[in-house]
Amino acid sequence: MIAVQTLGIECERASIRAAAASDFESIVLAIVREAVNEGDFTVINEHVASDIVDISPQCLFTGGRRGLVEAIQVARYRMPDLIARVHEIRRADCNEVLVGLMLTGTYAGDNLAPTAHNGKTATWRQRHTWWFRGYQITAHRGEVDTAALYAALGPPY
């Protein structure tokens, strides 16, 4: 596991105010509500560093901010009714926010290449950690409950 400190992401001050922490949580909530649920990427463009790093065990996106947006767009394309609900959000450190999600979506493949997944609905959990420097998110780590996805949709291929 990569230590967050090795990425140069550390607390800028030990005395970050509670207001900043709630601002961080508000930014993460906005990413879920606006970007994931609605497809509006304004908050990502404003608060995610262009060179954000994904340090997830199973890589969820590459290519910085653009890669994050593309990953969400693909998920929304494959599951047009995708809804993410926040079941937990908390500050873990002075610059770190953890969020637990419950996602539900119905798989809709390409019309010209339908698969056995088409029309199946899945519900699964995800946990994400977002690291901030100032009001910019500079790193991300996510864990996806792939077992629940496979149980609902079947294996990927």
Describe the structure.
This is SnoaL-like domain-containing protein. InterPro entries: Cyclase_SnoaL-like (IPR009959), NTF2-like_dom_sf (IPR032710). The protein is α+β, with helices and mostly antiparallel strands. It has a domain at 22-107 and 126-144: Nuclear Transport Factor 2, Chain: A (Roll), CATH 3.10.450.50. It has helices at residues 18-38, 42-47, 64-78, 146-153, and strands spanning 48-54, 83-93, 96-106, 121-133, 136-144. It has a five-stranded mixed beta sheet. Strand 2 and strand 3 (96-106) form a beta hairpin. The radius of gyration is 16 Å and the shape is globular. The two termini are 29 Å apart. The relative contact order is 0.19. Mean pLDDT is 87; it is low at 1-19.
Descriptors:
globular; 5 strands; Nuclear Transport Factor 2, Chain: A; 157 residues; Cyclase_SnoaL-like; alpha+beta; SnoaL-like domain-containing protein; disordered N terminus; 5-stranded mixed beta sheet; 4 helices; 32% helix
